[in-house]
């Protein structure tokens, strides 16, 4: 008896749970008015950040800066959501759809992790304009924003090569994935073509299957400390908020330089304590791209298709705040013009 | 000191209720009762470790309330626990002053005080010896000294003789008489009636949580006292008609085991042990605990692999078999520590009935359990072995020690073992359950069971065994005939070195067993 | 007896309820401290959590968490702390995806093949910790933590373009070869707006029933539980504890290997770093604790976890700090551990008292009869 009742109970419980889904009827999307631009009087912009979100002093903050500018210029209403490391595809899709459903347009996914979910959401909300940063989504209502990070990294490499005293420079990547490999490849090439005698040391904080390397400043600090202890005196880190730890470590050693990434990290209030150790930052002007996307919708001519923000268009570049690279400006300008003209082809993969 | 109407509703089998005791100054007052009768609870109340729900404690006419042992110590009450609380790697002096450094400091003054107390009561304690070098009896004296050092005028001794051999018990009693002569009061907890009668001035008997009477040791016999304790006629372990056959059941040959301790010193635990138990024979092994008995049992059970030697059961070699196969092969096991080795305390009784026999009927069929049959059989064991429980779904932990043991005995006997290993089968078991367990062993023996009995209770050993062996430092050093030997003789053989070479006991008529 | 049984049920329910109430109260206090009104937050979570599409999503999440929880629970039942479910799950899912993507068999072979690969890989990985524990005395906690790190690195190494991974066209993410359609498991379609329930939920139920049956109704399960209750008593009863450790680690790891399959077979159909979320193994620990290693309890705990995560997204949308759910989850686990211990001790005492009372009553009636 007992056995039968227990099995039955387990079976019934699970069946019941499954059925409640249909029984309860209303979906989270039913409650709202139909999607799209129902409230056209005021532009509503939805942003879904990558893990770390606003406040990472880096990639996400760069997007946030563009958003803030759009807000100031056009008075748009803004809703910001953030990814978690425990996200599944369904979670990301839900996040985007929640935004689209509530009438936010455009909806911007910051980070390549949103590629799949934007593909799905764009299909469901054809009237909403989506934008994806760092990936390409093939849909009529999606603006795919990509950057030539290898070009800015090349310039960072040139700067590092000219500034190192001991001919040892380091690269810290947040996670060992193709996107970050682009940074490494550009940096290595920039260093090598400036001074082939310089040794470049690379360290990735986590392997490709573990995205926590983008949000772990302690790991960044430990990696940078290890490099400093080995006599490396210029460290370029492309590691999201983990890079903050690396900058902190570098600031602890006089004569060593950190090269920031994505945002102009010299100007980041959160990093003000270490600003004198930040040589320059390899800018990835997500802010420009985000601003452009919002503006296009505002102007009634939404951008779609793939837009590459490269060195020629100042989509990527090197920051000059602090004035630490003013002395090597001529070499950097020369390298930049060669890249723009196509004389230098920067590789996107290592080896 | 007077206790009036002490009641403690305590989450246990027996609560204290309406306890009335008067202890006069300068006497040895014995508190006797079955295990689980509530003696320990009462002592904890007296020592401030627990608070009574009702009732009063009066000392020298003044009512007191103890909140913790500190209060009790301040009132001159000290406790010597059954399990010693000494740090092995410190000296006697250090152990004594530990925690009461303020009294006499930790140097010369404390040493002088210790010597003074030791001389005054004839304790013979040497302050600068490491505790780890002391024997059990010496450690007990250190514990007593520790309590006196803190100014106790009333000493509570919880089962102080449980760990001692007879000669040591006598020495302890001499100490107690010295204390009494100096005007101190001793409260002595025990269930060994002979000892109680020999040392106590007054006796209070506790049964089922309440005081049922007092006795005058001068006019009371052990039997009368026991009947007061149990409330019924008392059984004895005597068993005389021989059922020994000449068919060997268990043969142990040259069993050898050595252990290397943490400091890398090799110690021989079992030293070329050989013996045979025949069908219908009870072989008793006497010895002070820690002389290899536990390891011998574990080796036979297959829990501890020996370095050398062979074990045979009913003609089959079992030396290499795992424990489960041995149990299936017919070894029943009543472990020494039932809480650690015999029961799953947090599991219900019927699951405990399965423990150790999961592969056997009625507990399972094929690879699957048969809970219904196991439950039914547990009901039967509860009935037949008089396990006092409201049901078989309660956890083993909620039963009293005696009832737990009856369940274990019932479980092991239910599988009709060929050999029963009974290690201290009646330890911590009340007199009533003790008699039942003895009956079970006797009955099984009559049906041809072989029994390996290990016990610290010499009466039990002599009463139940057909053959006796004495184990000392991992060796079987002597054998004896239970028909003729006295507990005192056995006790001195157990101390080994004291008696020198003991190939045969004095007074042994020689038919008790073959030579080693 | 009936009374005791009823009380036991009550006590069993009391612990998680107590824990949940405590967690809600503490979370409310935290919300108040941040200047937000707590009931609005809870209201939002409930409103959103009970929408039909949310329910589908919660069941899907819970399916994954349930399997991870049961994997942990198997270890817990014999006092083994398998912290390595995370690594076992990643490795299992990765190799299952790689093998599944490399071969193309009919569905009735393809899916079982994927399942077997996932279980085998997970079991082998956990088995390393088991063997280390029995042969070298290495704590399974330490071993599995280290194996987690190694598992991540192995997956990271193999998941590269040109090895077992393929770069997408934007050049930013890598994943394994997608499973052929024969490797896609059926879904329960609940309608356009509502979504699809993973077909793997059926397997999760089977796993739950199997777990209950093996532990409660087989010799092996009894041996396993007895080791958990008392290692010394189990040894004396004839259980080979060493073999039990290895076996249960293998089972725990095998189940852990299955953890990623609802996602793989029903959703992503390929392994990629951002497709398989981090921390499911650790969620499994929480869920097993919360569900008290009971197959139904773990299911409820997994659903609760799914509900909280689902609700957390909405909280952020409504302007609450999204971290609040993290606080709540942490507080729940902590409260659960405390509440269980409190209730367990109370129950044990209570039972001893009951037994004492009943026996005393029996003794009294007997006395009356004889008198």
UniProtKB/TrEMBL annotation, chain A:
Family matches, as PROSITE patterns: PROKAR_LIPOPROTEIN (PS51257)
Alphabetized CDD domains for the sequence: PBP1_PrnA-like
Membrane topology: Lipid-anchor
Signal sequence segment: 1-23
Keywords from the UniProt entry: Cell membrane, Lipoprotein, Membrane, Signal
InterPro entries (UniProt xref): BMP_lipoprotein (IPR050957), Peripla_BP_I (IPR028082), PnrA-like (IPR003760)
Compartmental location: Cell membrane
Residue ranges constituting the ABC transporter substrate-binding protein PnrA-like domain according to the UniProt record: 47-348
Chief location of this protein within or outside the cell: membrane
Keyword NAD recorded: no
Cellular component GO terms held in the UniProt record: plasma membrane
Family to which the UniProt record says this protein belongs: Belongs to the BMP lipoprotein family.
Designated name of the protein: Basic membrane protein A
Species assigned in the record: Actinacidiphila glaucinigra
TrEMBL record, chain B:
Keyword presence, Ubl conjugation: no
Annotated segments matching region Disordered: 495-516
Localisation: Cell membrane
Annotated SMART domains: AAA
Keywords per UniProt: ATP-binding, Cell membrane, Membrane, Nucleotide-binding, Repeat, Translocase, Transport
Domain ABC transporter as annotated: residue spans: 1-233, 255-498
Name of the molecule in the record: Nucleoside ABC transporter ATP-binding protein
Taxon lineage: Bacteria, Bacillati, Actinomycetota, Actinomycetes, Kitasatosporales
TrEMBL record, chain C:
Protein name: Simple sugar transport system permease protein
KW Transmembrane helix (keyword) present: yes
One example GO MF annotation: transmembrane transporter activity
Origin: domain of life: Bacteria
GO CC terms, sorted: plasma membrane
Topology within the bilayer: Multi-pass membrane protein
CDD domains to which the protein is assigned, alphabetical: TM_PBP1_transp_TpRbsC_like
Pfam families (alphabetical): BPD_transp_2 (PF02653)
Transmembrane segments: 9-33, 58-76, 88-105, 111-132, 141-159, 197-215, 245-265, 324-343
